[in-house]
């Protein structure tokens, strides 16, 4: 079961937002599909703030298909008017089919054109599905998954090892250090670093820090009585001060301030 709001800093402020698991044909390529839909009153906007997962996203909206890289900081998007997007949080096995150097897209995004294949056809099919009635999200995801599976082709052992790397760094019971992740995967730390650079664009340590910060934000938000010193120790921070520095550096606020803001 995927967390429907993981990485979203203020879930109570979301418009309609859905996360759907990938169809079987794309299970090795996509962690989940995410679909926001909004209808904001004229003259108003809705700011969505996110600490993204350390992965690439392929996003279709009514106007374009965009590949977004991993991020190193919190980001936001102001929604206005009416609209939607259908995004795929990509597993490492899908990345090589879309970009040779994911590090070049860290904290950036690229609108895809005909050089990447039939992206216009992908957009048209997803737009068509989103314009239908009940079940439109599922139909959009099915079209998206078919296109991506055809684009990526057969998943080989190397790609599966890259997926295992993501599981070791970001999954349930994830490793607390790069050394632990390397041991689980039976590779050297240097090999682990090369793999994350090739498939995500970030270092293993940066990915672990992002996961810890996401979990810290979730716990502070959902369990406001949580003792911050105990939480820091549980998540592998050196101490409470280290957790607070991480919070400030990425979110721009201290954990206590975030806890108060998230409760509003």
From TrEMBL:
Keywords assigned by UniProt, alphabetized: DNA-binding, Transcription, Transcription regulation
Pfam families, alphabetized: DUF6597, HTH_18
Domain of life (superkingdom): Bacteria
Domain HTH araC/xylS-type residue range list: 160-261
Name this protein carries in UniProt: AraC family transcriptional regulator
